Structures are given as C-alpha cells and as structure tokens.
Amino acid sequence: MIRFTHPPRPARARASAVSLALALGCLGFSLAAVPSARTGTLDAAHVKETVYPNGLRLLVKEARATDLAAVQVWIRAGGFLEDEKTAGTAHVIEHLLFKGGSDQNSPGAGSLDGEIENLGGLLEATTQKDWTHLTCTISGRFADRVLNHIATALRTPRFQAADLAAEKPVIQEEINQIPTNPETSLTRALYQLAFKNHPYRHDVRGTAAFLNSLDLADVRAYYQKHYIPANMTVVVVGDVDAAEVERTVRTAFQADRPGARPAPAKLPPDETACAEAARHVVASRFSGGYVGFAYPAPSVKDDPDVYAMDVLLTMLESGGTGRLPRLLREVGAAQATFETRRQAGLFTIIAGAGAGGADIERVEALIRRELELISTQPIPAAELAFARRSLRGSYALDNETYAGQAGSLGYYASIDRWQFSSEYLAKIDAVTAEQVQAVARKYISPSHCITVVLKPQSNVPPTRPKSGT
After folding, report:
1. Range 278-459 classified under CATH 3.30.160.20
2. H/E run at residue 126
C-alpha cells in the first residue's frame, strides 16, 4: 500500500511511489510535515460511520496523538464516468471548486483554498479515474469551519464564465506537460492501447480539443448528475469529537434533506484489458530509451487475486531489493504499478535504459524473462516473507499520519468499502506462494501484453514501404 506520487497521496493497494527519474539517478523521499499518529493499523472498531437521509456517508476516527485533524471529501466522480467527448470534465470541476460557493455571503465564497489557508490549513485536490478528492489537515478546533467551507462549495458551486476562462490556461499547461515526461507518456499510451472501450482508456486531464469546446452548460450538467450526496464520503480523522462532527456535517451538507435522492450512475460495462498482444515502437523526443508493458489486472472485488497481485508486485519491485532492481542494476531501472480500481485495471511496468537507448531491447528481454520465471519457478519462502514485511511497512507508512488514515478510509469507500483498509494486513498474511504464481500466470501472460517502446528519433529505423507499393 504505497502512496500516490502526487498530493494528497492516499493509501492504495500497492502502487510504486518510486519515480523512474529518481531510480535512474539517486533515490530520495520526504514525509509530510505532520506529526505521526502512530496507530499502526486502521482498527474498524474505532471508525464511526453515519449514512444520512440524502445518501451522504460520514466516517470519523477520533485520535489524540496530536491536536490536528484531517478533513477529506471523496467523490465517486472521475474518469470512469467519462467518454471521448467528456473526458476531462471532472478535472475541470476540481479546479473550479477552489472558487468556493456561489453565495457571496457564505463561507468560502470566491476562494475556498484562501478561506482554509486563513485557518492555517492547505487545501489540496486530485482527480483520478475512479474518484475526486479534497483534503486538508488543520487544527482540530477548526475542523467544523473547514467542513462548512467545503460543504458550501459542494452544495452551491460558483460556476462562472470568468472562472472557467481563467482555469483553462492552467489546465492546458497540465495537458502540455504529458508528452514532456516519459513515464506519463508511456502510461497514457498503455491505457489507450490496453482498453478499447472502457473509460479507463482516457486521460483524466482531457485534451486541448475538449478543453476548447467545454462551456459552463457542460460543466453544470455533469456536476448535477454526478456530484450528488450519494456519491460522496466525508472522512475526518484526528483530534475531534465524533458526535460534534456528525452534527456539523448534518447541518453543513443539509444531509437531512433526502429530496429525490438520485441514484449514482451505473458503472460502464466491464472490459478485460489487453485482449490481444501488441508491440509498438515510437520515435520520441527523449534522449534515452524507455519501454512500457501493460497487462490486465484484478479489480478491488477480486479476492484473493487483488492481494496476491500486491505481493507479486512487491517481489518484483520493492525498493532496491526487488527482482527488477537487482536484474537491471547494470543497464537501467524499472517502475511497476498496480493501482486497485473499482473495475479491472492494469498492471504496468515502465523501464528506462539511459542515454541513447541502445540497451532498451536488452532491458525489455530481461524483464520478459523475469516475468516468465516468477510464473514458473518455485518462489522461495524467504522472498514471500520479505514481501509481506515490505507491505506491512508500506501500510504503516501510509497510515502514519491522520491524513494517511483518512486517505485509506476514503479511497476504499470510494471504490468499494472502507473496511478493505482495516482487513488488508490479514489478507496479505494469508497470501501463499501458489496464489502469487497463479495470479502471475492468469494476468501476466505474453499473449495479453501491450508493449510500447520509446526510442530517440535517431535510433528508430525509417519505415520501409511494403513490397509492391
């Protein structure tokens, strides 16, 4: 359960937090400047859950190690609800929510993040394929005011033409950054090639064409359909009184008003990724060579596969001791990722071979061979035990702070059920070597692999016309 590589870094079922750029050079990390909560695990008995008449869900965990509180809202709106024409809408809404509520006399009007900064907090937000997330850590005595500010922005968002116009260049710059990073470029390409129809294939940032055509009517229609109380989970962890938080949320979110209580949108049809194997070689702007692999992966509901996949990934990549770092020590570096999703997703590996890209075919061959070995050769008991310990360490790191604990609860509440986070360690301890190999054979198959190779322009041979043309 390693953290995301960008704020707010919630816990998830094992995904690499080591960037390829760092792996190719020097490795470093930093922890958020929030005192440790030191709880070790997320005991379900200490989580108080309330479901209000309008469908809103509240999770509260009291903790007294510090006088801080993490306040988060998780919304089941993101890329999985979008298509070719709407991909990127949730990301735009994330930006606009920072403008606060539409009532200029209400808390948070005009600048939601500014109001929270005045209380000593920092509001962050992220949009991903399965969710949108707002978070801040604040003194516990201000938790009620933060909840009121966020509730105002979500109940009566200030969607104005001037705000949309101001945010479009900011979002466009985020889109422009995609092709400047080899990891991001490869990840986007792998998802687009691996999925033929499922919305996971789209980048949540959208495209320039989409952004140029988007207007306020589109934003409002999307928001009214998906940003409903039944799609939201409020999570508060820290120095608060659970009963007071429950009352604050009830009032701030007008949670006693069931209204029509629209049901959340249906999930798109399931699709197994990488239906057919394919390999693409692309001339790139980068000086080094890179290769990306994509394989189908289990969803959050695929028990025990989802846990065995975490163990498999840890064996392959854990820090500098996993199979891939040891294998590629002389020629390159690799980053493996498996993010647990609401529906079946991807297991990916992205590797680099340094300047010139001359060794990229060797790196590709070494990785393919190692994936075959882990599927066919017995897994040593010591390696399995080490992988379990590594996952326990990752879990402890993810849940060391109040923000981490709230992130674990909210993340899994958004894609399935929050109890996943409290059951995780017991499930990992139950994974056997046979289950790891069964998952490798089931998902990590050469016949279901999408490969994309990025080579410097000068190293890609010119395309020759077919015979007879």
Report:
1. no
2. strand 124-127
Q: What is the pLDDT of residues 243-261, one digit of tens each?
A: 999 999 999 999 998 765 6
Domain boundary assignment for the chain: 46-252, 278-459
**Nearest-angstrom CA–CA distance, 77 and 233:** 12
Q: Do domains 46-252 and 278-459 have the same CATH topology?
A: yes
Instruction: Give the architecture (CATH level 2) of 46-252.
Output: 2-Layer Sandwich (3.30)
Q: How many CA atoms lie within 13 A of 247 on its CB side?
A: 4
Residue 265's pLDDT band, with cuts at 50, 70 and 90, is confident
Q: How far apart are CA 437 and CA 371, in angstroms?
A: 10
Cβ-based neighbours of 236, under 8 Å, separated by 6 or more: 58, 59, 60, 61, 69, 70, 71, 72, 143, 147, 245, 406
> From the centroid of its chain, how far is CA 434?
28
What token pair was written down for 58? 């509240």
Tokens found for residue 198: 């499922």
Q: What is the mean pLDDT of the chain?
A: 87
pTM of the model: 0.88
